[in-house]
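Sample intake sheet
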Amino acid sequence: MRAALQQTAPGDRVLVAVSGGADSLALTAAAAFEGPRLGRAVGAVHVDHGLHPGSADQARRVVDQARGLGLDDVGVRVVDVVDHASGPEGAARAARYAALDAAAEEAGAAAVLLGHTRDDQAEQVLLGLARGSGARSLAGMPASRGRYRRPLLGLTHATLVDACRHQGLQPWPDPANDDPAYTRNRVRHRVLPVLEAELGPGIADALARSAELLRADADLLDSLAAEARQRCRDASPGPVGGLGTGDLAALPEALRARVIRAEMVAAGVSPSALTLGHVRSAEALVVSWRGQGPVSLPGGLVAVRRCDRLVVEAP
């Protein structure tokens, strides 16, 4: 926690996202202890998704516990979880981060602290494997991205349960965490235990280490892809826009796919809706050009080849 807070400046305000579970309660306790000693103002925010009976009562319990730890600035954000292309988990996540972003903006917070652990990281990597995702997804969750910090990624959930017990904190067992309808819960309660039983202990550690190694690789490839995308945009500039197909074709496959995907996202295609099939079909307009028509993309956009440029636009 001390290292995470030192990424901000003295006098900065920091918000802790607290659900009431053991991970976020331990996070809140650590922030409440370290923050004042480092000259940071620490507040907390609880997001009430309204997905189960009694969620308002739970929100009040969370507020009381956070205030009992010495935090005066504790707020509750009630959100509506609406249908989402990525399913109920994706819908809840989108609503939660929108609420946290709004709370951070209103508070002028320099950072928002999240309670994800090593166990969460292992689950994230397994989910990426199951989806057939690329290196970026398999790299798991970053310790820091934008205003968000995850100080506990190196710790286990069991460690944080012990931390709460030693401090007399009463975590709230969210019933949603045991619902097998959620993919992550099936990974947590069924898949990981089987892997541990069949392959031996330490699977979660190994997955987390793999994520750390892949993150360094993915960061480098993304940086190279950003530079390559700018070169492709600068090639033969004109009213058509898009990326020069000659420069695209000259790129290594790994960079070319990243450049095309980045172009799609920049044009407004949802990253969660993009698949390898979309990218490969657009790539064929560059490396296997036979006069094909536009490639349909999520969100009603298309990728089309025009005047030796790959353009992502509305049809």
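Comment: The longest strand covers residues 41-48. The radius of gyration is 22 Å.
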